[in-house]
Design goal:
alpha/beta; DHBP synthase
Length: about 210
C-alpha cells in the first residue's frame, strides 16, 4: 500500500493511516532528511521482529530511533543530560544522532542488548509528523535489504520492502551522508559514527 503525501502541506491527520498501521504492528517506509527509512513501534516485539525479517538484518544490529521533537524524545527517554541537550538544541532537527539509555519499555532487540539507542529529530517534515502522529518515537533504520543500496525514493525500494510495508510516498529524500552519531554522556564526548555533521562542529558547539 502506498500513501501519497505532499511533503510541504502534509499534516498529522494526513499521516493518521500510517500511524494506525504502526499501532497494529505494521512496518512503514518513509522519507527522512537523508534516505528512506523503516518505522515500527520500538515497544512492540512482534513489530520489531517483523522489521528484522523484512530487512534480513542481523539480530545483533541495533536500530536507530527518531522523534518529533526534543520534548517528545524527553517524554520517552527522560530528561537529557546537559551536554546531550545542548547538542540536541543546536543540531535538531538535523542529521545528528545522540546516544541515550534505552527505555525499559523498548523491545531488547531495538538496542541489541547494548542498553542504549541512537536518537535524533530529523530535518524532514514528514518524518517528524509521522512520529507526532504516532505520539512517540519510532525506528528509522534504512529502507533496504541489509547490504543493499539505500533507497532515495519509492522507485528505489526493493519489491519485498514495498510488499511488506506501508509506503509513505512524499517524493525523493535528499540523500547524502548518514547521520553523525555521538555519545555526549562522556567527557570528552565520543564520535561513534562520522556522517553529515562534521565532528569538529560538534566539538566547537560544546565549547561555545
Amino acid at each position: 500500500m502506498v500513501l501519497a503525501i505532499d511533503p510541504v502541506t502534509c499534516s498529522v491527520a494526513d499521516l493518521a493511516p500510517a500511524a494506525e498501521h504502526l499501532r497494529t504492528g505494521g512496518v512503514v517506509a518513509f522519507p527522512t532528511d537523508t534516505l528512506y527509512g523503516l518505522a515500527v513501534d520500538p515497544m512492540s516485539a512482534p513489530a520489531v521482529r517483523a522489521l528484522f525479517e523484512l530487512k534480513g538484518r542481523a539480530s545483533d544490529a541495533a536500530l536507530p530511533v527518531i522523534g518529533a521533537s526534543i520534548e517528545q524524545v524527553e517524554a520517552c527517554f527522560g530528561t537529557l543530560d546537559a551536554a546531550t541537550r545542548d547538542l540536541a538544541g543546536r543540531f535538531w532537527p538535523g542529521p545528528l544522532s545522540l546516544i541515550l539509555p534505552a527505555p525499559a519499555s523498548f523491545d531488547d532487540a531495538v538496542h541489541a542488548g547494548l542498553g542504549t539507542v541512537a536518537v535524533r529529530v530529523p530535518d524532514h517534515r514528514v518524518a517528524r509528523l509521522l512520529a507526532e502522529a504516532f505520539a512517540r518515537p519510532i525506528t528509522a533504520t534504512s529502507a533496504n535489504l541489509s547490504g543493499a543500496l539505500p533507497a532515495h525514493a519509492l522507485a528505489d525500494l526493493e519489491a519485498s520492502i514495498r510488499a511488506g510495508a506501508l509506503v509513505v510516498d512524499a517524493g525523493p529524500a535528499p540523500g547524502g551522508l548518514p547521520s553523525t552519531i555521538v555519545d555526549a554522556r562522556t567527557s570528552p564526548p565520543r564520535l561513534i559514527r562520522a556522517g553529515a555533521v562534521a565532528w569538529n562542529r560538534v566539538l566547537e558547539s560544546l565549547q561555545a
